[in-house]
Amino acid sequence: MKVCVLFSGGKDSCLALQKAMEKEEVACLVTLVSDNPESFMFHTVNINLTRLQARAIGLPLVSFKTKGGKESELEDLKRALEKAKEFDTEGVVTGAIKSEYQKSRVEKICKELGLECLNPLWHQDEIEILKDVINRGYEILITGVFAEPFGKEWLGRRIDSQTVKELEKLGKEYQINPSGEGGEIETTVLDAPFFRKRIEIEKSSVSFHRDSGKMEIKKAKLMEKNL
Predict the structure, then answer these.
(1) In terms of Cα–Cα distance, which of 160, 115, 162, 120 is closest to 140?
(2) Exposure of 97 by Cβ count < 10 A (0-12 exposed, 13-18 middle, 19+ buried)?
(3) Which end of the chain has less Cβ packing within 10 Å, N or C?
(4) What structural domains does the chain harbor?
(5) Segment among 102-116, 153-167, 170-184 with least mean pLDDT
(6) What pTM, to 2 d.p., does this model score?
């Protein structure tokens, strides 16, 4: 089946993309660029980097802007998926893990458009997902933190085995989602096995206020991979 993948550039959408590549024909990526940093549906941190990530992967990107209103962003998503149908797509892949809010709304839009909705990460264990992306060789940075106990020192940190151990411990201690699907953290993928080129950051900045902050990637470039 030919599919499009809802793509944020974070670890979950990248893993969902890779899993889709293993079973389906991925025709394009679909990204919603929201003006609302507190979007109900979409990842926002470094979302503009998806254009460079799409080039690194070698797939066309359907990118739509949205003001990020609770209902209007769903209409914008519908328009984006209608555009993706120009690639003869029959299905939509999401990186949803446990968010019934996101999953149900995407499924509703897919039904209206006659598309199948695929959720390859649905109800998988969050820690196992983190271990999976590490084992697959992803290079991932934490680029957003939005809840206790995450401080400024977490911004720009690479997710490795030690980081996963800490996230698992904090998840139990603070009753938070260790993979960040509840909005606790956001991530940016710089490299993965299916990337034809890797991304190198040239310029970035960190901002932090009270219990939230972001690492903004201001300039980045594609680099050849050492095969």
Answers:
(1) 160
(2) buried
(3) C
(4) 2-118 (3.40.50.620), 126-223 (3.90.1490.10)
(5) 170-184
(6) 0.94
